[in-house]
Every structure is written in structure tokens, then in C-alpha cells.
Amino acid sequence: MPTVLAIETSCDETAVAIVNNREVKSSIISSQIPVHRQYGGVVPEVASRSHLETINYTISQAFDESGLSWEQIDGVAATTAPGLVGALLVGLTAAKTLAILHEKPFLGVHHLEGHIYATYLSEPSLKPPFLSLLVSGGHTSLIHVQECGIYNTLGGTRDDAAGEAFDKVARLLKLGYPGGPIIDKIAKEGNPLAFSLPEGRISLPNNAGFHRYDASFSGLKTAVSRLVQNIEAEGHEVPVRDVAASFQYTVARALTKRTITCALDYGLSTIAVGGGVAANSALRSHLSTACAENNLRVLFPPLKYCTDNAAMIGCAACEHLALGHTSPLTLGVHSRLALTQIMSLYT
């Protein structure tokens, strides 16, 4: 199997990894969280500038950690979509330059496919078909993984992604950024049943009930905002830990219910979870319990591969390269690109 140098710069982490098939030789991540925390979220231009400042050093560190040389690299990959255009361009330009300089094949990788492949890094024997639950700051989707590059999205959020909802609720509770880890931490000290919050179901046309797989988190965020306003209007101190625990419980319950239903409906016995929210302790607990009750297998990537990283991009690139897929050097970046269009990245 090939060995690939992979670069990931889709948002606020400058990440470089060297991967051989499903074995990580090195994985370096330079996080920009301290830079963006003062703004309460990611500032695209600041992110792009930070990538420019750290990309060369991060590549050098990846080679030092792996102990490999360019003679042992079979291809160069970079995230090409979706993401912040300026940030993506930094990684893509670096990868293309290295591919030309060292005469290596170039591969553009879809960021969400990377999150699907994150589970392969800890479960090398995993094979399609299976159901992937992708939950991050920008995406929440249920995906039928059929084979490398062939995916069918079965459900998702109609508005805010799960991670986005965590960030917004954390801001409402004055907890800081990023919201996911902070809420997860303080929710352990709160009562998840203290407040009843809406799951945010999606109605079907003609009063035919509710969508079995789609979710909505915008209404949940609004419900938390109104709850906080009402408590403050009554002159009481907001029980932040209880509110955080109730919010997290509602998100985990909603995601678990839809994921289990989808897996059973499509006869998929394995569920692989990916994305930053895959690190959430409540989601892991709820989904693990529900899968055990329904004789389903659930797989979570190690915490270090839940958030954005280049190892997952390299893992996906290795399989594409092994199948003979390469990308043209004319390939550009895309702020959005459907999973069904992944094979348009390759020749």
C-alpha cells in the first residue's frame, strides 16, 4: 500500500501527516484556537494567515517524527473541499508545489471523506457497507458508506450542525470558545433532566409525521436562549451546569434516536462516528448503550482523530491512490462539495 504525505487546512488547524495505508507514521497539528478564541469563533482571513505562517514548519515536523524521506513518499494529498476557501488554498498550493517538485502524484481529498476514514485508523479491519454519523461544527449527516468514493447521504441537519449548536449555546452561557469541550466538561456536574428541551423534529408534508433521520438544532438553541432569558427575568442566577447538561442530553438523544433508526431501516449492523462532536462523552454513552440494546456495532475514532487532522486525510488518500485515483494539478478548492461528487476530484 502507498505512503502519502497529507495536508489539512480546511478551517483552523494546520495539520500534516504521513500515512501508510491505515498506519499513521506521523501526525502534527498546529491549532489556532488561542488565536480565534478572542473573537468567539473562526475568522477566515486570520485562519488563512496563520496557515501561511505555520505550514512549512508543520511539514518539516511531520517528516522528523516519521523518520521517512521523500524517496519513501508515494503521493501528496491535501483537503480541497469543503472549507474556508482561503484556508484550503494554502494547503492545496503547498501540496501541489511539493508534488511537482518531488515528481509525486497529487490527490485532492474531500474533508468529510476524511472524517469517515478516521475510524479506519483505529479499526483497520473495518469494511463497507456501514453507516457513518458525521457530527462536527459544520456538518451533521448520516451517510451510507458503500465503498471508497461511493456515499449516499440518508439524513442530516436542516440548519445548525451539532457542533455549531454547542458553540452558540456556550456563547449564550458565557462559557467561551470552542463550546463543545467546555459544555461536555461542566455538564458532568449538572442534571441532564433539569430542563425539558425540544429535539427539533422535521415535519413531513401533508401532516405525514416527522422525518425519521433529519434533525434541527436551531430551535434547540433558541429554546436555551429563552430559558436563560426567563430565568434572568425572574431574578434568579442561571444554573449553567444544569442548562449545559440538559442541552447536551437533548442533542445526544436526538442524534442517537435518528442514527439507530437509520441503521435498522437500512440493515446496517455497524455505525462509525466521526467529527469533533464524536468526542462528546454523552453522545458516546447514549449511542453505545442504544447500539448494545439493538445488537449493533458502534465505532468511535480516538479523540485525537475526532477533530480536524491530516492523518484521516492521508488514510483516505492512500486508498484512492491504491485504486489508481489521482487528481489533476488544475484542481481548485470548493467551499461546498457534495459527497456524491467526490469522484469528480480524481481522474
Cα-atom Rg, whole angstroms? 20 Å
SSE succession: EEEHHEHEHEEEHHHHEHEH
Strand order of the largest sheet: 3-2-1-4-5
Helix percentage: 40-55%
State the distance separating the first and last CA atoms. Answer: 19 Å
Q: What count of helical segments does DSSP give?
A: 10
Helix/sheet category: alpha/beta
Uncertain spans:
none
Q: Mean of the pLDDT scores?
A: 95
Which range does the strand content fall in? Answer: 15-25%
Q: How many beta-strand runs?
A: 10
Oligomer: single chain
For the largest beta-sheet, the strand count, sense and barrel status come to:
5 strands, mixed
Shape: globular
Describe what is shown at a glance.
This protein is an alpha/beta fold. It contains 10 helices and 10 strands.
What does this structure look like?
It is a single chain. This protein is of the alpha/beta class and 347 residues long. It is 40% helix and 18% strand. The chain has 10 helices and 10 strands. The strands form 2 sheets. The protein has a 5-stranded mixed beta sheet, with helices on both faces. Strands 8-7-6-9-10 form a 5-stranded mixed beta sheet, with helices on both faces. Strand 2 (13-20) and strand 3 (23-31) form a beta hairpin. The longest helix has 26 residues, at 240-265. The protein is globular and about 65 Å long. The model has no long low-confidence stretch (mean pLDDT 95).
